[in-house]
Amino acid sequence: VRLVGERDNVIQIQQNNQRSLLEVVEGMVNAIDFPNEYKNQLIESNLSSPINIQRSVLAANALSDILESDMPPVLKKMKAYEEQNKFLEQLKIRFANNSNNHMKNAIG
Hints:
Layout: H1 2-32, H2 36-44, H3 50-67, H4 73-76, H5 79-107
Helix pairs in contact: 2-3, 2-5, 3-5
């Protein structure tokens, strides 16, 4: 009876650990998920109208929030996080360059 009780405790601990891990991973995925609509807005970076500027600002702010989010160091070592972070950093640079070119063209 005692062995069965101990086994049940071990199984309960494993299930709790699995649930906790799942919650952490889901939290990470949600934290680094970036909507396709925002990706497209920043890639196109059409700043020719006030509505497009507003959409770009919303997307850029969302991107900034993700890149500045505080992740546990162990999650930052995960390949999925590293790849997504690299993509988002490249997206940030591309948008900044496109915005800079648009401003240059608008001024000069």
